Amino acid sequence: MKFLVALAILCYTASATIIFEEQFGEGWEDRWVESTAKGSEQGAFKWSAGKFYNDAEKDKGLQTSQDARFYGISSKFDSFNNEGKDLVIQFTVKHEQKIDCGGGYVKVFPSDLVQADMHGDSPYNIMFGPDICGPGTKKVHVIFNYKGNNLLTKKDIRCKDDELTHLYTLILHSDNTYEVRIDNSKVESGNLEDDWDFLPAKTIKDPEAKKPEDWDDREKIDDPEDTKPEDYDKPEFIADPDAEKPEDWDDDMDGEWEPPMINNPEYQGEWKPKQIDNPEYKGKWVHPMIDNPDYEADDSLYQFDDTAVIGFDLWQVKSGTIFDNILISDSVEDAETQAKELWEVTKEGEKKMKDKQDEEERKKREEEEAKRKEEEGDDEDEDDEDFEDYEDEAFGEDDFDDEDEEDEPHDEL
């Protein structure tokens, strides 16, 4: 039995394939091509681990470095077709700049992409990852290109918006199901056909069917026996009976005086007959459905015949995002292993370093605030002393001696 299990594991390991992997070590520049499509508006990437990290070298990634810029960079690999296999896309994102508006997603492209001219309209197969803009947009994009159309997910998948490194994983299964993970935990899953508009609806309303003319779908009707009371009609507003014509009112000058109008306490509103059950009610008419003649099942929605490039094609208002630990594989286990070996190790040390920096910054702010208050207090004391000196010089020291003033005779009086 143990032999069979070991053999199964060996066979799986042999069949699993890592299609692309990038941890941005030495020489990464030789594997990536920056786009120049936006000219002077194109932002530059730098190689950095950022302000806080677990390992200064191992945690280096691509970091956006200029505010309000477009960013474009991509790496090419051997084209693959994921027919009959899982497809896993995974990478890490760290918005250490407290991002206010900008993308943090990747795109995978077919092999005909011109890398130096990559831009927002370049056709891609999949777009996946976080996108943040203000408090209203904090989502994970999962967009598939199907027959030339980019399809957005119908579900709202929330992304992380703090300053730490987070792991994003997209898993496409060959049975047309999917899973999205953040930090190695499932946040969404389902069926591709249900959660994207790949195909037209399976059924449609029968265009030949119409509601019968004698179909009564009114649950309630006016009671034909109910009549309006004779004293019901009262005006909504009446002249104020307590109002009196002002004494200085001049009819010739001011016109004929009329008392102001007030709400009528006897007004009962518009009369309506009471409602009764409709004896002819047949229920709500439901439009018959038929099979959609334009619907054609597709068991390969998950499949992309030609995937050969991965890239970052972004706009950011505030720069500072770091991308790292990219993986494309046909094995979920590969992604889980990488998550444990890289992201889980990084997050612990990174959090400790950031907490320490935050504490140091807090203490520094408190010290600066205390110093500022102390200096303001000293300034107030100096101001008091200056005023006293001014009084002595201007009026003499004895001018403000109350006891002397009481003892002196007021000869001038």
TrEMBL record:
Residues 1-16 form the signal peptide. Residues 203-246, 344-375 have a biased composition (Basic and acidic residues). Residues 203-248, 344-413 are annotated as: Disordered. GO terms for biological process: ERAD pathway; protein folding. InterPro entries: Calret/calnex, Calret/calnex_CS, Calreticulin, Calreticulin/calnexin_P_dom_sf, ConA-like_dom_sf. Keywords: Calcium, Chaperone, Disulfide bond, Endoplasmic reticulum, Lectin, Metal-binding, Repeat, Signal, Zinc. Disulfide bonds join 101-133. An alpha-D-glucoside binds at residues 105, 107, 124, 131, 313. Coiled coil: none annotated. It is found in: Endoplasmic reticulum lumen. Pfam families: Calreticulin. The keyword Phosphoprotein does not apply. Its main location: endoplasmic reticulum. It comes from the Eukaryota. Ca(2+) binds at residues 23, 58, 60, 324. The keyword Signal applies. One of its GO terms (cellular component) is endoplasmic reticulum lumen. Residues 376-413 have a biased composition (Acidic residues). PROSITE patterns: CALRETICULIN_1, CALRETICULIN_2, CALRETICULIN_REPEAT. Monomer. Belongs to the calreticulin family. This is Calreticulin. It comes from Stichopus japonicus (Sea cucumber). The lineage of its organism: Eukaryota, Metazoa, Echinodermata, Eleutherozoa, Echinozoa.
